[in-house]
Structure formats: structure tokens, C-alpha cells
Amino acid sequence: MVGKHMRQVRGLPPIDHPAPLAAPVRRQPLVRRAPAARPLAPTIDEVATAAVEGKDAGRPVAAEVRGPVEAHLGHGLAHARIHDDALAREASAAMGARAFAHGADVFLGPGESDRDLGLMAHELTHVAQQDGAAAAAQRKVTVGAADAPAEREADAVAEAITGAARPAVLLVDDGPAAPGQMLKSTFLDALRAAVTEAVDAELGPEHSAVGCPYLDYYFGHYVQRPATEAEAFLRRWAPAVTGASTAEGMIAPVVARARAGIQHWRATGEAPPDLPADVRGPAAAAAPRGLGVGAPLDGATASRMMGALGQDLSRVRVHTDAAAARLAADHGAVAVARGPHIAFAPGHYAPGTVEGDAILAHELAHVAQQDGATATDPGAEGATALEDDADQVATGVVARLWGGARRALDSVASRLGPSLRSGLAVQRCGGMKPNLGKTPSLDDLKWYIDASPAIGSYVAGRFEGGLPMKLEYYKHNEYIAHAMKYGRDNDPEFQGLSDADVERKANDTSAFNDKSRNRIVVDESKAQAAATMHEVMHSYCSPAWSKLGWRVSEGGTEYFTRQVAAEAGVKPNGEYEVQVGAVARLIEHSSHDLVATAYFKGDVEGVKLAIDGKHQAGTFDAWVTATNTRNWNADPLASPEQKAAEDKAEAARE
User: Fold this and answer.
1) Cβ contacts of residue 452 below 8 Å, gap of 6+?
2) How far is CA 433 from CA 225, 470, 564, in A?
3) DSSP-assigned letters across all residues of 477-522
4) What whole-number distance in Å separates Cα of residue 480 and Cα of residue 512?
5) Element at 83 (helix H, strand E)
6) At what angle do helices 406-416 and 354-370 cross, to 10 degrees?
């Protein structure tokens, strides 16, 4: 019995139009009736009878649900009908059941769906049993007996069908889709239509979901991402999705989650508190009044500008219509930046020209200034500083892109300088980038991690009051004493070694993160910003990722450290090469988003789902084991060439 909540209902008290039964059997009442003299609430019998007598025409069972059951039973079920009216829900609830079947009718309880393959397989088996035509159907002789033959048969059918029909992943990038699966593109189209309808209903007549920045962000982002990544995100965002056995079954919980978000917004005027940080920020901010959704930078322009600026421009939206022209004119500017939206005056969006690139780079600098800022007036002095900063960015970008066109740039600046106004309503928090020397401060390292285009959105809001630890630099001999004690107490590679070997291994290190004492200890004589940043990065690592094992943890930490170090212009320290390679393979076979979410936020299940779905069950666990044991020949994600390279690196290390 599925969840021990389904019941087959037969032998109800006589009704005007009883459902056809091949061989009616006298049944025991569902409950013993009380003496007539005592006025009681309706019995279960009476409630169930009312549902059967009062049923409407019902609706047929969806083909994708009916088909697998018919194939399994060898029995046609086109005549079966679904009922989910108030009487059906009341009767099911009275029985303590999710649903019940009577004749060819299936009555659903509160909140149940006729797209639930397990539930429907169970109840349709009862329909077949009552038809008396299925070869394998057995008759149930008592109502409510969970271990009766008919119940056991219905349970077995449901388990067999859902077990066979539930694929490892529900969304696929390319066809053909297996039963229960959908093409990602088809699914997103259906999901967007359902979510838009639900959001429109919640917003009321004064608002519209059309052009909603949150919807644009989600659907615009995941339409370009692998199907496994989109599915993993939905499981994180709407946990009820995890219970879905089909792709279509994921839509309802996502819609419910979207409704809850809109209800929160209507009640508080704020975005839902659990909305991902990269969506809550300016990237998802509504366009200025009067502007539409806008268009992303075209691929060639985005590539050129990203290369010159070194920042993610995927959220930028360009406006060149009449509304944009009015906004620019209102500010006496050739372009205006508001959050990720840039409005251009007519003829001034011209990427690929010296003048066009200068204007665009200037405004993209303002987009960066506003990223993560608060809505305050910077004042005259602050506004001038912001403009000067944007001018410097534009100068640098054009110099990189155009080389010897500096004179042309000077001409552009002299002509357009007074018009390169952003109309800013916000200012950047955090100031200029700090310079990292060999012994950077904890705050400077945190600044680069938090501001990182690669990982900043995953750590947003962490340690807002500062990292809860100290950064301690020691002379070499003092550092070795601290490192030896820490290694003996905490590091697996130090265990069982002689004092001389422990000292040798301590000398091979330059820093360590002593979480038990909330401190990072660094050898001042060998200090490197990247090595210290690695230890700081450990503080951002989620417990779930750490539990995957020491080498997996170090590989993830060094991988993301190298990303931030590259952004800061700091040379990596070159440690953990093979572990970094293993994490790079994990990202190659899933995505940066999934692995970053696992490392920083603890959603290891998301990347595991993607890896196992792309390959086979157990692949992720095999990768973890191979990485922790350094058995690269057992790494299912490594190519023969990669395995040989890792073995060579290990041999050199030894």
C-alpha cells in the first residue's frame, strides 16, 4: 500500500447507480455503526457513499500516467475517471487515505495529484481488480486491511512502475526523453507559463509578471545551463520538487514556491529572504520606471568587454528605445546607468567603435559601482569621484581594445565628458581595491573573496561583521613550533610520524587554519598572499563539503582560491595540483555553479545528482573515493591522459 494511505472501497451501502463490479462481494462495514438513537457525525461509509453518489463526470487519466499502468497490467483503463471535488477530498480524509477507488472511479484526497505516478498506479490497479478483467487481479475481501492480497498487489504494481519509470534525472538537454522525463526547453516553456499565470494571479490587476526581473533572471540563466544544473537548482529552491517522480510533477511545487515568494513580497515589500544572493542584489533590480526588460549585451560585445574589464556582464541590460532616450535626455546624458540597466540616447550605443566602446565602458563601470550598494545620494564630491573612476575605467578599456587610438580617445573624452553622466542614485560600498603584499591583512583578503566575480555571489552575507578569527604572522622558528603541534593534533598526514618527520612536514608548509583556536597562522619568512588566502578560504567552506574528505576539501579550497588570486593579480602558490585537477574535472562534468554551491553552501546533493545523472549511479562517490585515496586510475571522471598525468605528478611529489 503506497504510504499505507490508499484504500480500495467496494461493497458500499446500496446507491442508485452503483459502479459495475464483476462479482459483487458482501463487505464488512468500514466502521461499526452506532445505535440509531445516538446522533453521531456521518460514518466513513456514509461519507464515502456521498462521494460516490455525488460524483461528477470526472476526467480521464492522463495518457502518460495511464500508459505505464496499462502496459504493466495488460488491461485497458481508458474508462477510468478522476474525481477531486470537495466530496472526494472529504471522503478520503475521513478514511485517512490519500485516495480511494470505487469501480472505475478514483477519488483524490486533499492536495493529491492525478500526475503522481505511484499514487495513480496503486489506485488504477484497484480499478482493474474491480473490473474483474485483469489476469493478475485478486479480490480484496476486507476493507482497510493493509496486508490483504489486493492491497499487496496494488503496492507491488506501484513500486514496479515508479521504480522503472523514475529516471535518475527528469530533465534532459536532447531527445528522446524517456518516460517521466522532459526536454529542458519544453519543461522551461511549460514552467514559465504556469509560474507567470500564478504570479499574475497573486500580483492582482495592478501588476504584471511580464518583464519581472526575477523571472527573467531565472529563465534567462537556466535556459543556457545544462539540464542537470537546472533540475538541481529547482530541488534546492523548492524542496518539494524532490518528491516528484516525473518532470511534469516538478511544476506544481515550483509554482507553489513562486506563489509564496510573491505573497511575501506583497506583505513586506521585500524580496523573499531565502532568494539567492545573486538574484536579490542589483542584478535582479527592477528596471527604472518606464523602461522595459532590455536586452543583454550581444555575444561579441560581451566577450570583448568582459576581457577588458574582467567582470561578469551577464546581468547587464541595454535599452535603446524611446523610453531610454527620454531617460537619458532627462539627465542631459548620452547614457544613464541604473543598477544593471543602461539607457542610451539615440545613436550612442555603438560598440565596436572607439566612441561607442568608451561610452559603454564608462557606464559598465557605473554598473559595477552600484553592484551591492545602498540607495543613497553620493553628494557632489562623491559623484565626482564616481565619475572620475568611471572615466579611468573607460580610458583603460579603450587603450586595451584599441591600442594606438589614444588620441581618438582623448577627442572622445573632450567632446563627451560633460555628457557621460550616470544619473546615479547609489554609490559603491567598499572603496578602492586593496593592494595585496606578502603579508596582507585579514580584511584585505576578505575583500577580494567577497568582491570576486567568480564566487562573490556564493559568499554574499557571510561574515558581515568580519571574519571571526585572527591572522597571526610568526618568525620561522615560532611558526614551526605552532605548526608541529597543530599537525600532530589535527592533520591526517602528520599522524604516526617521528618528531623529525613532523618537523620536516611542518617546514613544507607556510600557513595553516587552526579553527579550534579561531586563528590563521603564517610563517612570515615564507608568506605569500595566495597561501594565506587559501587558509582564509577554508573559513568559507561548508561543513557538507568538508565531510567529503580532507583531499576533496583541499582541492575545492585551492581551486576557488586560485580563481580569486587570479582576479587579484596574485600568483598561486602551486600546492594541491592533483586535487585541483580533480575538482576541475568535477566542474567540467557538472558546472561551476553546482560545485560552488556545494562548496560554499553545502548542497553536495545537487552536484551528485548532476554527475550521477550524466554518467551512472555511484559516479560521484567513486570520484570522492579516488580523490581522497589519490587512486587516479579509479577516477571515473578522468581520461586516460589525465590519469597518466596525475600518476606522474604523484610520483614527482613522492
Assistant:
1) 459, 563, 564, 567
2) 32, 22, 13
3) HHHHHHHHHHHHHH-GGGTT--HHHHHHHHHT-SEEEEGGGTEEEE
4) 11
5) strand 81-83
6) 70
Least confident of 208-222, 281-295, 527-541: 281-295
Q: Which residue has the higher pLDDT, 225 or 288?
A: 225
Work out the burial of residue 536: count CB atoms within 10 Å of its CB; fewer than 13 is exposed, 13-18 middle, 19 or more buried: buried
Q: Distance between CA atoms of 353 and 525, rounded to whole angstroms? A: 50
Cell of 482: 605552532
Q: What is the DSSP string of 312-343?
A: --TT-EEE-SHHHHHHHHHTT-SEEEETTEEE
- Model confidence, pTM: 0.43
pLDDT tens-place string over residues 128-164? 888 864 433 333 323 445 556 778 888 788 777 766 5
Distance CA 312, CA 364 (A): 10
Residues 245 and 167: their CA atoms lie apart, in Å, by 8
Asked if residue 594 and residue 466 are part of one domain, the reply reads yes
- CB atoms under 10 Å from CB of 418, counted, come to 10
Q: What is the pLDDT of residue 136?
A: 38
* Residues 60 and 146 occupy one common structural domain: yes
Distance CA(108)–CA(250), nearest Å, equals 19
| Closest among 531, 541, 328 to 445, alpha carbons compared | 531
Domain hosting 610: range is 442-653
- 170 belongs to a structural domain: no
- How far is Cα 305 from Cα 574, in angstroms, rounded to an integer? 30
Instruction: Report whether pLDDT(419) > 70.
Output: no
Q: Read off the amino acid at residue 330.
A: D
pLDDT greater than 50 at residue 86: yes
The secondary structure element, H or E, covering residue 184 is: helix 184-203
* Domains held by the chain: number: 4
Number of C-beta neighbours around residue 146 at 10 A: 12
Residue of 398 and 454 predicted with greater confidence? 454
Residues contacting 654, CB < 8 A, separation 6+: none
For the ranges 185-199, 371-385, 390-404, 521-535, the maximum mean pLDDT occurs at 521-535
Q: How far is CA 75 from the centre of its chain?
A: 41
Q: Is residue 569 one of the residues assigned to a domain?
A: yes
Where would I find the beta strands (DSSP E) of 592-632?
none
Asked whether residue 394 is assigned to any structural domain, the reply reads yes
d(CA 106, CA 88): 9
Mean pLDDT of 22-33: 33
Which ranges of 281-435 does DSSP label H, i.e. alpha helix? Answer: 299-309, 322-330, 354-370, 379-402, 406-416
Task: Quick: pLDDT tens for 630-646.
Answer: 888 889 998 888 777 76
Residue 193: per-residue pLDDT: 85
Percentage of the chain surpassing pLDDT 90?
18
Burial class (CB in 10 A: 0-12, 13-18, 19+), 32: exposed
pLDDT tens digits, 99-109: 888 889 999 98
Same domain as 636, residue 488: yes
Question: Cell 568608451 maps to which residue?
Answer: 358
Q: Which residues pair with 171 in a beta bridge?
A: 182
Q: Whole-angstrom Cα distance, residue 543 to residue 541?
A: 7
Question: Of 118, 139, 165, at which residue does a domain stop?
Answer: 165
Contact (Cβ atoms closer than 8 angstroms) between residue 290 and residue 341: no
Distance of alpha carbon 431 from alpha carbon 364, whole angstroms? 17
Q: What is the mean pLDDT of the chain?
A: 75
Give backbone dihedrals phi and psi of 183, rounded to 5 degrees, phi first.
Answer: -60, 140
Residue 575: all three cell numbers together:
600546492
Question: Could you identify the residue written with the cell 599537525?
Answer: 487
